[in-house]
Amino acid sequence: MSDFDPSSSISLPREAVRALRSSQIREVANAGFGVPDVLPFWFGESDRVTPPFIREAAAEALGRGDTFYTHNLGIAPLRESLARYVSELHGATPLDNLAVTSAGVNALMLAAQLVVGAGDRVVAVTPLWPNLVEIPKILGATVETVSLSYGEQGWTLDLDRLLAALTPDTRLLMINSPNNPTGWVMTRDQQRAVLEHCRRVGIWIVADEVYERLYYGDASERTAPSFLDIASREERLICVNSFSKAWLMTGWRLGWMVVPRTLTDDLGKLVEYNTSCAPSFVQQAGIAAVEHGEPFTRSLVADLRASRDHLAAALAKLPGVDVKVPHGAMYLFFRLAGAQNSLELCKALVRDAGLGLAPGSAFGPQGEGFVRWCYACDPARLDAGVERLARYLEAVGAH
Ligand SMILES: Cc1ncc(COP(=O)(O)O)c(C=O)c1O
């Protein structure tokens, strides 16, 4: 018998890990357990399956036995395809500046690991998908937030407030545009001002541009304004992207990042110690997406634009709803009467109305009072959801 007494040793993870916020969207989903018929609009993904030509490319690769480790930075043909794609959209981007990752969230973690250490100050613009705020904290950094403002124009950035927060002791700015959850899109002028300020002060920028193709500006514009359009490839900018949104590949876990060449070798080491590489047959599917996916992405964006307008028009008719139509991503983030505690409201909506929305507070305190609705789905489903919300609001007497 060992005389080891387990109760005398407390088994807990690091404090920084314990202090991470858990997902409030999951908390709402858990409240829906046992509710038989929930319409889920809470997660950031389409209800449509990945297009067949991409699935076939992966199946073919598996059939050929493409089941081995690859280069840490991705297979050369995929990096070449990405180099052509990114260069076409945003100007010359050689293969040496590109790394394939296990989706956007892994790219965000790698980006943070590249430039952030314990005690560093990071600034993030919120409301924001929580991963960008929590990831630097895992590494022991502190994260200050600068909130977008909400008004007649929807969500807008107070540029002076952001620049004032980007002090000389700031290591990194994490910025996501088009933005999850608000759909806010940073303008070219704002990007220029931020880039120039960060150059002057010596601050890294991690630009999360995973929604760049889900942009509803002028039909001639294929992407939202990107930091890559105005920056050199060799400055302190890391751009994160993903196959999840433009080609409906959320479950595949494939993404990429654009980094200065001076980082590429060290990034390879980090990939080795995190995941070693993205799955090889998934990378083959990525080549099919980049090489043949343009017509698909264009028709997806047209469908999303129509869904956005359809949902916004339907919601605008409801009492207690204040909705603005944003220019990017795939969410409406709207103010809802009775959502002062949006987490509790969303739990009630799922329990009592069978409607799955994400609480605004999941995206930071600035999101309180709002709820997020992902409109990447069949319009009939959107209509059914709006009907449920209307009935709920009527029952609780919203006005
Ligand atoms: C702002 C933002 N960045 C990154 C991601 C990461 O997506 P993935 O890891 O599927 O590429 C998401 C997913 O919803 C997101 O909303």
From TrEMBL:
E.C. no: 2.6.1.-
Gene3D superfamilies given in the database record: Aspartate Aminotransferase, domain 1, Type I PLP-dependent aspartate aminotransferase-like (Major domain)
Location of the Aminotransferase class I/classII large domain: 47-389
Pfam families to which the protein is assigned, alphabetical: Aminotran_1_2
Enzyme category, top tier: transferase
Cofactor(s) for this UniProt protein: pyridoxal 5'-phosphate
Protein name: Aminotransferase
Organism encoding this protein: Paraburkholderia hiiakae
Gene that encodes the chain: aspC_4
